[in-house]
Amino acid sequence: MVHFQNSFRNLLKNCILNRDLSTGKSLHALYLKHLLPPTTYLSNHFILLYSKCGRLTAARRAFDQTLEPNVFSYNALLDGYAKRSLPEHARQLFDEIPHPDLVSYNTLISAYADCGSAAAALGLFEEMRERLIDADGFTVSGMITACCNEVALLRQLHSLAVFCGYDSYVSVNNSLLTFYGKNGLLEEAKQVFVAMGEHVRDEVSWNSMIVAYGQHKDGAKAMEFFRDMVHRGIEVDMFTVASMLTAFTSRNDLSWGLQLHGKSIKTGLHCNSHVGSGLIDMYSKCGGTMLDSNKVLQEIPAPDSVVWNTMISCYSRDDELSEEALHCLKQMQLSGHKPDDCTFSCALSSCSTLSSPSTGKQLHALAIKTDIPSNRIQVNNALIAMYSRCGSLDYARQVFNRMPQHNIVSLNSIISGYAQHGKGSEALLLFNQMIRVKMVPTSITFIALLSACAHTGQVEEGRRYFNMMINEFGIEPEAEHFSCMIDLLSRAGKLGEAKRLIETMPFTPGMAAWATLLGACRKHGKMELAEMAANELMQLEPTNATPYVVLANMYTDFGKWEDVSRVRKLMRDRGIKKLPGCSWLELHNRVHVFVAEDNSHPMMKEIHDYLDWMVLKIKQAGYVPDLRFALVKGYETGEGEKETRLRHHSEKLAVAFGLLSTTNGAPIVVMKNLRICGDCHNAMKYISQISCRKITVRDANRFHCFERGNCSCGDYW
């Protein structure tokens, strides 16, 4: 019997060590059948097995079945809750422990640290000291992690560690190195590193310093530490290589990255998922190609979720590769990995780029079904951005309203959504609510606010928020803030003031500033200022067609045919071609694309016939075609041909197809790569009235929601 008990115990320990849940459950069944006398010792090991395998329900059941639980029983289950980022459950269990010990406190502090709950961790640390329970290095390491974003607290904990002798723990020093580095306190990190001495430092210490310098784009320093590490004979492991790749990526240094890739191939580390994800990221950011990144992926025998997330993230950063990002997600699922918060955020970003609400809704459903305990708020923020950019502002607001808690990104996302849709009042109302609850706005918040003011013509409000940003919140305006102010003034017809702002702002004016001014000049008919803005744009980016096209159109409006010929000749000589207007909409999980004068769509005859009928209807309702927007090559073209060209603009084709292919009352959402023209904007108002449909068009600047003969922009665009 004694031999059987010993064998049983050893087998159970091996199950815990190897996370062998299947064998462990068989042993537990034998144990419950009383083939062995029940003991707290064995019960604790079953709690530990289930906790380490992530089966917390089974772990809790095993705990409840323990006749005489001791502090180890509680700690085993507590560790399971902590590892699964469930601090509320952990705290509830902790409060049930009759006499919590040091391990109990360290485990709960670790749970709070993983969730970034600095206040809760500090409260527990204070309670621990009041009960005269001596801390150790693991306590201090956990506290440093919990307070990682509070520099003042970091320094206090550092002082405590030195005063109480905890600085002899390598884990304490490594935590200090990591979080001093993340907060940009590189000198403090270096001082800790030097003070550690050779006898305390380990590979983690060296890697932490390399990462610290790499994150803050000081690749040269990171390289110094790497060389010193190699010179001293310290083993270069996967974490070292990954840290160096981070440094090279931050420097945009592909040449050194290639050399390190070669070294990792020689040592076999390129097959490691940790190194592989660093290589994938490096190639995508440092001038390599996604083909190179994909080759790295193919060489990893068993890529983990981090590798897949890195690939999806790299694809999603390139607008042209958004479909590949979603395909990569499918491959990830087929390989047996579940998407997490990072996966959903990147995939939803690709849906936004593709303007694919149906795929976005599928991902939303998958996110609801998937257990994401760690960072659900990040996924919700991505959903708000996706629905806003796909024209479903109501859905975006529903997600926002259902969130149990918001952070600044949540507010920025929904405010930006309202700004894009021309709902300035709602955006400003949300900002005021945000201030009332003491949430501190960021520079992105003010970009959204200024954009909302620009789209709704609230010039004085825009000035007030611009000054508030500087004077009340100490945020230095960046180029984007000035671009929003230029847009605000230009739309309101204050072109002289906009020009002065461009000339006096503390940045070299970029494309956005001059393009905004040029667009406003056409709207307000300011020819001389338009020529100046166009010339500036041509110097900044000689191959961009925008200034040439706008200038030629303005010359046409003013009847300056010689100048039109001159600009068009300049375009021909420089090989510049106008980007064709392109509109698309998603219907039954398929994207339909339309280009002006393109007859490739199989339903084009029905679309043209429908448009002919619709134009007759809206003319009867008062629509008058604006022939200024009929872009033709000749100057003597008749009105009939001009009207036909207007009728075949891409957004009209897309809307007609949507009306033909959907049921009565169904909303239509169309995306366009350029700014909607004045004639199409006017026609859409009449079409929405005649068809009794809600028609949303997202152009290059904003959303236009046409309903009952009106547009959400109030004709201010």
What value does the average pLDDT take?
Answer: 88
Distance between the termini: 87 Å
The 3D shape can be described as: elongated
Work out the strand percent.
Answer: under 5%
Based on helices, strands and strand pairing, what is the structural class?
mainly alpha
Helix count equals: 38
The main sheet comes to: 6 strands, mixed
Number of strands: 6
What is the CA-atom radius of gyration, in angstroms? 31 Å
- As residue ranges, the low-confidence spans are none
Could you walk me through the main structural features you see in this protein, from its secondary elements to its overall organization?
The chain is mostly helical and about 725 residues long. Strands 2-1-3-4-5-6 form a six-stranded mixed β-sheet, covered by helices on one side. Keywords: Repeat. This is DYW domain-containing protein.
Give short descriptive properties of this protein:
38 helices; 717 residues; 6 strands; mainly alpha; single chain; 6-stranded mixed sheet; elongated
Helix-strand layout with pairing:
Layout lengths: L1 H17 L2 H12 L7 H13 L3 H9 L6 H13 L3 H10 L5 H13 L3 H13 L6 H10 L4 H14 L5 H13 L3 H11 L6 H13 L3 H13 L6 H14 L2 H14 L5 H13 L4 H9 L6 H13 L4 H13 L6 H14 L2 H13 L6 H14 L3 H10 L5 H13 L3 H13 L6 H14 L2 H13 L7 H13 L3 H10 L6 H14 L2 H14 L5 H12 L3 H13 L8 E6 L2 E6 L8 H17 L18 H9 L2 H12 L6 E5 L5 H14 L3 E4 L4 E5 L2 E2 L6
Parallel strand pairs: 3-4
Antiparallel strand pairs: 1-2, 1-3, 4-5, 5-6
Helix pairs in contact: 1-2, 1-3, 3-4, 3-5, 4-5, 5-6, 5-7, 6-7, 7-8, 7-9, 9-10, 9-11, 10-11, 11-12, 11-13, 12-13, 13-14, 13-15, 14-15, 15-16, 15-17, 16-17, 17-18, 17-19, 18-19, 19-20, 19-21, 20-21, 21-22, 21-23, 22-23, 23-24, 23-25, 24-25, 25-26, 25-27, 26-27, 27-28, 27-29, 28-29, ...
Protein name: DYW domain-containing protein
Keywords: Repeat
Pfam families: DYW_deaminase (PF14432), E_motif (PF20431), PPR (PF01535), PPR_2 (PF13041)
